[in-house]
Write a structure and sequence with these properties.
Elements (H helix, E strand, L loop, with lengths): L10 E7 L22 H20 L3 E7 L14 E4 L3 E4 L5 H4 L4 H10 L4 E4 L12 H4 E4 L4 E5 L6 H11 L2 E5 L16 E3 L3 E4 L7 H13 L3 E4 L2 H5 L6 E5 L2 E7 H6 L2 H8 L3 E5 L11 H4 L1 E2 L7
């Protein structure tokens, strides 16, 4: 098994939630959020689930930089992948967020840690685009193929085409945009609930891509890289099967996904993934009430460590 891949980071940033709740500001266009009122019990459960997830990832050899999310005004701080991303060559991007309370999740201490522990050449900050109503919510809005240099992106208020084009120009990605909706006709809010691109495989909810010609183009592009394209049903996407991330552990590639997602995969799908990555199911049912799953909780670090 390969021990390195530009697609699968071996280190990540995670923000442990101390005051988890479902964010009322994001409910309007996130159909994956639960329509419930969260309380102190949910917050405790989310904290415990997240702590267990960190321990499991570390046990498999992933380096986890843990930050504490102790601001009660930031219900979605557990999802840091939306406000920053990192890229080979020492590049960091900071993204414009749609919800005002999510803009406060950007943290200087995380950026300083990156500069101290990794070789950071530049930080490109797109957050000023918020003043013009232009949003691009990081690796939620985009699923990045770091090998073929493609940014897959669902059309959404959280994925502005101007911001996307600017990012792709700066970071050398080709944008591949498509419309997607669930079986109720509701638009998908973030691309990373719909698909996951690994080194040798891709998971994608093809049924949700509304234009059949575009759907074929997306699948063909993924297949052209030699990847095994594993198609997910609408029901599997709704259970977060697409919201997974390939990471590099001490014994090779891992696919980190939730227990909810793992349970809805067929035996054949699991076998196809296992051909190149170890499946690592993580139980986070409380965290998933907020409309995101394992992928959303992890900001992968595609940077070279300082020695």
């Amino acid at each position: 098994m390969n021990r390195t891949s530009v697609q699968a980071p071996g280190a990540v940033v995670m923000v442990r939630p101390h005051h988890f709740s479902v964010n009322a500001e994001t409910a309007a266009d996130n159909a994956f959020q639960a329509e419930i009122t969260t309380d102190a019990d949910h917050a405790k459960q989310a904290y415990d689930e997240h702590s267990a997830m960190i321990a499991q990832l570390e046990a498999y050899g992933v380096r986890v930089h843990v930050f504490e999310g102790d601001n009660p005004g930031l219900p979605d701080c557990v999802f840091p992948n939306n406000w920053f991303s990192t890229h080979a060559g020492g590049h960091v991007a900071i993204f414009p967020m749609k919800a005002e309370n999510r803009r406060l999740e950007r943290r200087q201490d995380i950026l300083e840690m990156l500069k101290s522990n990794y070789r950071v050449q530049d930080v490109i900050d797109y957050s000023g685009l918020e003043q013009d109503g232009l949003y691009l919510e990081g690796t939620g809005a985009m699923v990045l193929d770091h090998i073929d240099r493609v940014a897959y992106a669902v059309e959404s208020d959280r994925t502005n085409p101007i911001a996307l084009e600017r990012f792709c120009t700066h970071f050398n990605f080709e944008p591949m945009v498509f419309a997607a909706e669930d079986d109720k006709g509701t638009s998908i809010y973030h691309t990373n609930v719909l698909m996951c691109v690994g080194t040798n495989f891709a998971l994608i909810g093809t049924e949700m891509i509304t234009d059949t010609a575009r759907r074929a183009e997306v699948v063909s592009r993924l297949q052209s890289t030699g990847r095994d394209v594993i198609e997910l049903s609408n029901a599997q996407v709704s259970s977060f099967a697409g919201n997974a991330i390939e990471l590099m552990g001490k014994d090779g590639p891992l696919l980190a996904l939730s227990q909810t997602a793992y349970d809805v995969l067929t035996e054949e799908q699991r076998e196809r993934i296992s051909a190149s990555a170890t499946l690592l199911p993580l139980a986070i049912p409380t965290l998933e009430l907020a409309g995101g799953s394992v992928r959303c909780t992890i900001a992968g670090l595609h940077l070279s460590p300082r020695h």
